[in-house]
Amino acid sequence: MAPRTKTQQPPAPHAADSHDLIRVHGARENNLKDVSIELPKRRLTVFTGVSGSGKSSLVFATIAAESQRLINETYPAFVQGFMPNQARPDVDVLDGLTTAIIVDQQRMGSDPRSTVGTATDANAMLRILFSRLGKPHIGPPGAFAFNVPSVTASGAITVERGNKKAVKATFSRTGGMCPRCEGRGSVSDIDLTQLYDDSKSIAEGAFTIPGWKSDSWWTVRIYADSGFLDPNKPIAKFTKKEMQDFLYREPTKVKVEGSTLTFEGLIPKIQKSFLSKDREAMQPHIREFVDRAVTFTTCPECEGTRLTEGARSSKVNKISIADACAMEIRDLAEWVRGLDEPSVAPLLEALQQTLDSFVEIGLGYLALDRPSGTLSGGEAQRVKMIRHLGSSLTDVTYVFDEPTIGLHPHDIQRMNDLLLRLRDKGNTVLVVEHKPEAIAIADHVVDLGPGAGTAGGTVCFEGTLEGLRASDTVTGRHLDDRAVLKDEVRKPTGALEIRGATSHNLRDVDVDIPLGVLTVITGVAGSGKSSLVHGSIPAGENVISVDQSPIKGSRRSNPATYTGLLEPIRKAFAKANGVKPALFSANSEGACPTCNGAGVIFTDLGMMASVSSPCEDCEGKRFQASVLDYHLGGRDISEVLAMSVAQAEEFFASGEAAIPAAHKILDRLVDVGLGYLSLGQPLTTLSGGERQRLKLATHMGDKGGVYVLDEPTTGLHLADVEQLLGLLDRLVESGKSVIVIEHHQAVMAHADWIIDLGPGAGHDGGQIVFEGTPADLVAARSTLTGEHLAEYVGE
C-alpha cells in the first residue's frame, strides 16, 4: 500500500498582497463633509454626482494632491525649493496611495510658439531625423527648430595656454527660426490711425492708446523732451527723420528733467507692451484696442511655416520638415512607416509609436504645426494622454477629469477601450465622469451629493453600476433618462448665411443657420464644427459667444466680483450709510489691514508647504471691524457675501434692501442653476461646469440677438442637463437665436434644427452631411450622428 500523503494547505497570503485598497478617512477639502471611503486598487472607479458635489475635491484635491506631495517630499530640500509647494489636504487618514498621474482638462499654454508637436516631443524627434537624413545637410537639430534663432558673433577672447594667449574667435549657431516672424508664422501689421490722431501735436494729446494720457510721464514727457521731435508740431507735419524716430527708433537713453530714461519708437513699444501678452489675459478695453489696431497676416517669408529657407530646403524622400508638420498626423505616421533607415532605427520606432498613439486616441486629424492654444479642452486632455499610452509603468494611479469631453458618441467607445487597457495593465484608474456610456464600464462607482456646494460633499452610494441604477440617488434616478424628440419644432424667423467657408478643414461650405430657433451644430471631433461657427460667424455686436476658455481669476475673485454684482451692492451700502463705496470692497479701502482683505494669513516656510490660517483680526471676514458696523436691511457686507445666490435673490428682492440691478444678476445665476453658490466663494474653488455656467450667466445680460454656445453641457450632470435645456428654451422664447456646438444626444434631440458635419475628421470632414430636424436625422440614419441619436431615443 502506498503511504498516505498529507493534504497540502494553501500557502498563507503574502503580507504585500494585503494592500489592495486606497483608504480615505475624514476628508474635508472644500465642501467634503468628513468623507470616508475605500477604493479598490487595479480597478476602474468612476466618480459621479451633480456639478459641484465634491467629485474633484475628493479625487484631485485630496487623493491625487497627497500622492504628488508625498512624491515631492522624496526629493532633496534643494530640489523641493524649485517645485510648487503643496499643503497637505484636509484629511485625517490617507492610506494605500500609489504614484498618481493626473490627466486634467487644463487648457495647454497659448504661447504663440507652442504647437502640438512641441508639446508632445514629436517635433524634437523629427528635428533629429532631418538633421541626420535631410539632404542637403544644413546642421544639427537646432537648425530645424523654429524656436532657435541663428546667431553669429566674433570678437576678442583670452585663452591662456602656457605663455601664449589666443585672442581671436568667431562663433555661429544655425537656428531654424524665421527671422521675419520670429518663429510665430504670422506677422502683425499695426494700423497707425488707431494709435494717434495725426492732426494733433503730442502736446495736444494726439495719442489714442488706452492709458496713454496727454500728461502721463512715459508718453508726453519722453516723446516731448527727447529732442528727437517737436512736441508742438502736428504729427502729420513731421519730417521724414522725425517720423522714423517717432515710429521705429531703437531704444536710446535720453535725459528728461534730470532723469535718464529710455526713448523707443512707438511701434516696438506697442509690440512689447501689448502684443507680447496673451490676448485672453487682457482687460476687455485693451483687447478691443488690440483687435482694432492690429491685424495678423501669414508671414510672407516663411509662408506660415515659422522656419528659415534653409530648414525648408533640406528634405527626406522629397518631404521637408515643414511639409511633415503640416500633414495630418495619420498621414505622417504612414510616411514615417515607409522610411527604412537602420542608422536611425530606434528614433523611427519611438516617433512611429508617438504618432500611432495620436491616431489610436482619435487625434489623427490634427497636424503637428497646430498651435496648442487652439485645442479644445477635450483635445488638450487627450494630447496629454499620448505620453502615457505606451508606458510600461504599472501599479500607478491614473486620474482623469471627464475624458469624454468634446467626444462624439462614436468616439466614446474608443476612449473607454483606452481606459480599460490602462486598468488591465495593473493600474488603478480614477475617472470623474457624467456620461452614462463612460459610467457603464466602471468596476466600482462612487456617487457624491446629494446636492451641490454646501448641499453636497457626502457619499450617497458606492458599489456596482447595477446597484447605482437601483439606488434612489439623483444619479441613479437619471442614469436611464432619455430626452424625447419634439412633436413640433419652432419655425425660423430668418437665416444667418455662410458662403464659401474654407477655415481650417472646411471645404467651401455654404449653409444657412436658421435664426429664432435652437440650432445644434454636431459631428465627430475634428469635423469642422468650431471652424464653421467661430471662423465664419462674424463676432459683431449682435453675436454673443460663450466658449470653453477658462475664467481668469485669483482667490480674491468670487461670483459677486466676476458678475459685476458687487458694484450695485457696494453703492447701496454706501448710500444707506452715507459713506464711500470703496469701504465695502475687500480689495480696496475696506480691507482688513492685517490680511490685506484675503481673510487668511499665509506663512512661507521655504521649501515646505506654506501654511494658511484664518486672520485673527477679521476672523476670515476680510473687512475692517469699522466697516462691519454699517448695515443694509439688517445685514453687514460680510454677511451678504456669505449668503447663497438663492438667499441673496430673496434678500435683494424687496424691502429696504431692494436693489433691482443686483436682483437681475442674481436671477440669471439662479436660471443657470447656480443658486447654491455663496457670493463670496473664491473662483478658484469652483468646478469646471460651475465656471462655464457662471460665464453663461454674465453673458445673458449682454444685448445681443444671437447666442453661440460651445459645448455648454461640459461638466454637467444628467439632472443639470434638463435644467440647461429649459434655459435654452427660455432664451429662444425671449426672441434670441441660440446656436450650440454639442455632442450630447439630449441637446440634439431637443433641437429645432440640426447641422451635422463630417463624414469623418480632418481632411475626411469639413462638409455638411445633414441639415434638418432631429426627427428627420433619426429617420434617415444616414450619418454617424443619426445612428447614435436613433439608438439614444430608442427609435
Automatic annotation (TrEMBL):
Enumerate the subcellular locations listed in this protein's record, separating them with semicolons: Cytoplasm
User: InterPro entries under this entry?
Assistant: ABC_transporter-like_ATP-bd, P-loop_NTPase
The record's listing under Gene3D superfamilies reads: ABC transporter ATPase domain-like, ABC transporter ATPase like domain, P-loop containing nucleotide triphosphate hydrolases
The ABC transporter domain covers 16-475, 484-784
UniProt KW keywords: ATP-binding, Cytoplasm, DNA damage, DNA excision, DNA repair, DNA-binding, Excision nuclease, Nucleotide-binding, Repeat
Report the sequence similarity comment from the record. Answer: Belongs to the ABC transporter superfamily. UvrA family.
Q: What is this protein called?
A: UvrABC system protein A
Taxonomic source organism: Streptomyces anulatus
Lineage here is: Bacteria, Bacillati, Actinomycetota, Actinomycetes, Kitasatosporales
